[in-house]
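Slide 14.
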Amino acid sequence: MKALVTGGTGFLGAHVVRALLERNIRVRVLARPCSDRRNLQGLPVEIVEGDVTDLPSVRRAVQGCQLVFHAAALYSFWTRPRQRIYEVNVDGTRHVLQAAWEARVEGVVHTSSVAALGLCPDGTPADENTLLDYRHIVGDYKRSKYLGQQVALAYAHKGLPLVIVNPSFPVGPYDLKPTPTGQVIVDFLNRRMPAYMDTGINVVSASDVGLGHVLALEKGTPGELYVLGGENLTFRELLGLLAEVAGLPAPKVRLPYAPLLALSYFNAGLCRLTGTTPRMTPDTLRMSRHPMVFSPAKAVEELGFPQTPAREALAAAVQWFREQGYVRC
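Slide 15: predicted structure.
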């Protein structure tokens, strides 16, 4: 049995690759010629060069594989040109699933996101059935993940044996870029977070998410969604756990929303002029007003999805970032 993993050089993809190898499943990774491949060093994987935005290269990569794990995505709240995030997260998804359909593979797992789900107005944890109104989606990342999920659902309805997983906010090793979630940890470790704006997030172990992909293939129902989540925390609680595992003080100043929103517009405008990436954008500020808390109950009950404590997952991330030289303070 051979599985193609798109995005296997990235954060979540690296965990998916390791989970598959632990099941003795042979792995082929679709990687761009310019991709950073450090996450695959020493692993017995086959690498095929290509890009999810290039359908012919995806078709070549799928040939000879019985399984497909589509984990490639642009996880960014600031992509320029903006169209690039739709080319990867929407068109790229369509290319991978079309190639899988043509090759008549035995199973597909599509990595979506909780960003493609709705939120409960009363602040209670949302789940796979919480609907999202496209008209009210904030930001290109959330829109692109929602549209990519709609593409996946269409292929599942067509008959492709496909399961969708919706990871929340993964933390752990192999976060090379780092992702926006990982950047929060790096900023904390480097003492670049003197204050915070409180919100709510669901923190999950990245290694659990990697295993969750395999469990979705083995036990999931085609056409169904599964939230791969962990613990719901306020941002203050998250910083408190980071303080404990890192041995550093947590910021105590809570900033109000309105001045930060104004500052984010100024920061975004400056970054457009300089070609740099802002640490906060108007979109991320708007999203923070609504706690992104979710229930993984369905994945736990139907898939046996593990629930590593957030403290343990954060400790693994802190250790990895320190060992890899991300911490300079």
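Speaker note: The first strand starts at residue 2 and ends at 6.
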